[in-house]
Amino acid sequence: MTDSRQPQEKHFDLIERGLKRRNVPGILAFVGLRGLDPLLQYKILADGWGASILAKVGLRSISPLAGVASSTSLSLLDNLNLPLPHLILLVMSVGSFAKQSYWLVGLCAEDFPPSAAVAVSIYNTLVNSTNSLLFLAASTSVLTAPREFPGTGLPYQVVLGSALFGVGMFLEIASEWQRKQFKDKPENKGKVIQEGLWGWARHINYGGYALWRAGYCMAASGFIGGTIMGAWQAFDFITRGVPTLNAYCQKRYGEQWTRFRRDVKWVLIPGVY
Q: Which residues are listed as membrane-spanning (predicted)?
């Protein structure tokens, strides 16, 4: 399926497109708030916070530390005393924090105000915390799955979710890096990038985000949860994010953007949409 509609209305956006400046308070607020998320997820997964929250809403939980503590030969990870499925979920939280912080500090050129920092941080923390709680709830946890991926001792959902998380992370961060390298060249000023991953889909970074979000949820609550999360993120991008950028880029680049939309037919994920 391709997107051939021209944007007609203004959609909600957290940042002002085209305003190129580094907003230091926004950056500090974002990195600080997002940095709290891995600590919160550890408390939920390992310190009994998750079981307590679930009990208050009448849900039964698995043991907070069900399973044998993992051995990775990395003392920093092994000292956490987490079973491998729990550790994978925590690493995803750390990875999402690191990726988003790198994007804002090293790749983003547009103004990112404190209001956006707070909103994005709250959203990501709520989603990550929901994943952790779904992972611990006996009715939704992947640890109750009957089948394990051969040679891993892990449920299929954890292995496939981890792979999806890795692919999505790569697509998002690599595409953003490619765009910055392109934009940093003086000869490309005022041009639309159509090389590398941007020749695959017009908003490949959004597609990557939807994939890793789906993978994160899949590793916590299985195929249904991962599908719902991926569908939600795709819906948000298709109905809000993509139309917003289409309107901005059409105004800024004109015919060049029209050709780009014609030449690169896929919007988020090549071969899918």
A: 117-142, 154-174
pLDDT tens for residues 68-86? 556 666 777 767 788 889 9
Scan for tokens 């920092």, then name that residue: 117
- Cβ atoms of residues 175 and 202 within 8 Å: no
Q: State the Cα–Cα distance between residues 81 and 70, nearest whole angstrom.
A: 7
What distances in angstroms separate CA 24 from CA 29, 87, 107, 121, 201, one per listed residue? Answer: 8, 33, 14, 16, 32
Q: Could you give the C-alpha distances from 161 to 89, 155, 201, in angstroms and in order?
A: 10, 10, 22
Cα(192)–Cα(246) distance, rounded to whole angstroms?
12
- Residue with the larger pLDDT of the pair 153 and 191: 191
How is residue 273 written in tokens?
């949409």
Neighbours of 258 (CB within 10 A): 13
Which amino acid belongs to residue 31?
Answer: V
**Torsion angle, alpha carbons of 240, 244, 247, 249, to 10:** -130
Tokens of 259: 């050709």
Question: How far is 120 from 30, CA to CA, in rounded Å?
Answer: 8
Helix (H) or strand (E) segment spanning residue 33? helix 24-46
pLDDT for residue 47 is more than 90: no
Residue with more model confidence, 151 or 226: 226
Do residues 256 and 202 make contact, with C-beta atoms less than 8 angstroms apart?
no
Taking the C-alpha atoms of residue 39 and residue 75, their distance in angstroms, rounded to an integer, is 18
pLDDT digits (tens, 9 = 90+) for 7-38: 445 566 777 777 788 999 999 999 999 999 99
Name the DSSP letter for residue 15. Answer: S
pLDDT at residue 4 above 50? no
Structure tokens at 221: 């609550």
